Amino acid sequence: MGKGRLEAFSDGVIAIIITIMVLELKVPHGADWDTLAPLGPVFLSYVLSFIYVGIYWNNHHHMMHAISKVNGSVLWANLHLLFWLSLIPFVTGWMGENHFGKVPVAIYGGVLTMCALAYLLLEHILIRLHGKQSPLGLAVGKDRKTWLSIGMYVAGIVLTFVHPWLSAALYVLVALMWFIPDRRIEAHLSH
């Protein structure tokens, strides 16, 4: 079966996720700079999560261009990824509203971990469908970057109970690692 509907549905869900996140930003009551200060953690968590959702959308887009077809397993794996991405607005709001408290930051890291694992599963199922010698299979290889990210998320969850800002710094570092779209897929598609 073709991949067009999967791409369109995924794009729509991701657009809704971003919309929900921005709607969670509450307008302050007041017109001076002091009214913005309490919103600092909320805004920081929004920016970080917006970047993460953007990274997933961008890499999902590249991955979809590297394949030619989907099957039922791919559809379910994609829904699994979208499920975990759909939890990002909740954990973003919780983390920001509670000024990066320990439990919300740990849960945020847990959701990021599950998003990464779900993306990895989708990638694996697509490679199984198209073959290891497909453009996606050749581009991804052993996918050390994803495994490193998962390790950093888990470390961030543990570090939360030492100091939540250490975890937040790790989450920012992972986002910076992925900020530029995965060039491996682009390189294989251009050949």
From TrEMBL:
Membrane topology: Multi-pass membrane protein
One MF term in the entry's GO annotations: potassium channel activity
Membrane-traversing stretches: 12-29, 35-55, 75-95, 107-126, 147-180
Keywords (A to Z) from UniProt: Ion channel, Ion transport, Membrane, Potassium, Potassium channel, Potassium transport, Transmembrane, Transmembrane helix, Transport
Catalytic activity, reaction form: K(+)(in) = K(+)(out)
Entry keyword Ribonucleoprotein: no
One CC-aspect GO term: membrane
Location(s) in or outside the cell: Membrane
Domain of life: Bacteria
Signal peptide: none
Protein family: Belongs to the TMEM175 family.
Protein name in the entry: DUF1211 domain-containing protein
